[in-house]
């Protein structure tokens, strides 16, 4: 038997510990019932000053072990925690593991699939969970409230007899595709990824679908114009909905962004909010500040 030298185990010339060593862009397909997901995974561990390198293959083995043993009922938002736990079992010289995952998720809907982007960002030590952020984003539709009120006025000027009727119905405005994203602190482990999707859906509706029949298309456009929103409205409403609906402790952070691919401008509109669930509940009157 050949005795190969364990080079990674040797002592480096410069004895400095390294915070993050590992692998990036590991791609892995996943099937969950009728749904499909494509994961891109980064996994890192720390190494002590007296170790030259990490055993990189153990990172790949940790990822494969967890994903190959997933069942259809396992929560996709828990993958980061499980991979970190497996990594710490294999890297006996490391004190922390960091797993970051981007997921393209295709959820079966009628004859096609709705597309979601999911995010997992987990840091775990041997003693505690230091970070466990999970989140979701997808493309929906918004209509501009400013242009709507401007066109309402212009139509009323040209058609004074329609002024009263126009005041009670949506009018002409520009609309755009909007990417809404929400990330929450889930160190408590109480939030499910699909609960987060439900928060966006209450405000923005489901993700845009490639196939829309005539009535479905009309309902989508009418719904957006009945409730026109700036990107600022989107982030406030989704953050509020998250604080109200999700079982987050008050100290848990909520981060929401909204980006509109503007139809009448060569640029995008963007808004972002970052706030704890407790602060938002106080501001919104969801809890008694006293």
How does this structure look, described?
With 290 residues, the chain is α+β, with helices and mostly antiparallel strands. The N and C termini lie far apart (73 Å). Strands 1-2-3-4-5-6-7-8 form an eight-stranded antiparallel beta sheet. Helices cover 31% and strands 34% of the residues. It has two domains: 1-127, Urate Oxidase (Roll), CATH 3.10.270.10; 137-290, Urate Oxidase (Roll).
**Termini gap:** 73 Å
Main beta sheet strand tally, sense and closure:
8 strands, antiparallel
Give the radius of gyration.
Answer: 24 Å
Strand order of the largest sheet: 1-2-3-4-5-6-7-8
Element-level helix/strand string: EEHHEEEHHEHHHEEH
The number of domains: 2
Please give a handful of descriptors for the protein shown.
elongated, 2 domains, 8 helices, Urate Oxidase, 8-stranded antiparallel beta sheet, 8 strands, single chain, alpha+beta, 290 residues
